[in-house]
Amino acid sequence: MVPPDRHVHTEWSWDAPAGSMEQTCARAVRLGLRSVAFTDHADFTAWTLLGNEAALPADFRTHVTQGVLLPPALALEGYFECLLRCRERFPDLQILSGVELSEPHWHSQAAACLLRQGDFDLVICGQHSLHHGPDTFIEVSDAYRAREAEAVVRRYLAEVCRMIDAWGDFEVLAHIDYPVRYWPRQCREYQPGDFEDEFRAVLRALARSGRVLEVNTRVPLHPEIIQWWHREGGRAVSFGSDAHDPLALAHGFADAAAVVEASGFRPGQHRHDFWIRT
């Protein structure tokens, strides 16, 4: 059984110019998915760019001013109009409204206001930024320019712990291993065991809060982390492709589901549910 995809981006995410909510729904039907959640970005942090601005995609450069990238706000009216059209066109597909909040504990008023306005079916949270000074922030991919690779991962996981403790209004933690996407090629091979204490601290905090761990397949989550999640008492797992275009929907889900099941989780009572611990 293909799990529901609970982390999908569309044209309403500022960084997904190839996204299409309608085409993603059509692909979900072709793939046999019963459910999809459109968790478009709500990014509040202004990123100081450490790299070459000219190397950014053209769509990204439109949001850069004097070396600072400020993501635009999520256009709620257009997002929900598109969502309603898709629900009418694809009545047999469960289509959830959703949002991916970036570091909401740094922007609590703006994040809370958005959630009141949106009343989303699903809220997932991700950490995409790190401090680079008292009032300066950088995207995690840029952090490798400023610090050693191991320090980036440890600082990232410490900030995720702070987010879990400080921000209560979300259900799923997205991409716990986000920095791995940008791990420098010149460094020794990334091994999750090198950061076991830090990962397990995040997992314990998440388990205590009763929330759900996402298995993000953009870069396959290492099986060891899923096993740690079970040992730390995690109650459930969500699957997310983090797709930014329709073709990436549910990418790698068959392999991910096999790993999750082997780690002690199984499908919920209904096909739309999170997978739960056995």
What attributes characterize this protein structure?
alpha/beta; 278 residues; single chain; TIM Barrel; 9-stranded mixed β-sheet; 14 strands; 3-stranded antiparallel β-sheet
Overall SS class: alpha/beta
Can you tell me the CATH topology? TIM Barrel
The radius of gyration computed from the alpha-carbon positions, rounded to a whole number of angstroms, is 18 Å
Whole-number total of structural domains: 1
**Total E-strand runs:** 14
**Helical content (DSSP H or I, runs of 4+):** 25-40%
Through-space gap between termini: 17 Å
Structure description:
The chain has 278 residues and is α/β, with parallel strands linked by helices. The protein has one domain (5-277): TIM Barrel. The chain contains 9 helices and 14 strands. The chain has helices spanning 21-31, 58-61, 76-89, 108-118, 140-143, 149-166, 196-209, 223-231, 253-262, and strands at residues 5-8, 35-42, 47-48, 64-65, 68-69, 94-102, 122-126, 129-131, 137-139, 172-173, 212-216, 236-240, 265-266, 275-277. The strands form 3 sheets. Strands 1-2-6-7-10-11-12-14-13 form a 9-stranded mixed β-sheet. A 3-stranded antiparallel β-sheet has the order 3-5-4, with no helix packed on it. A two-stranded antiparallel sheet has the order 8-9. Helix 6 (149-166) runs parallel beside helix 7. It is globular, with a radius of gyration of 18 Å. The mean pLDDT is 96.
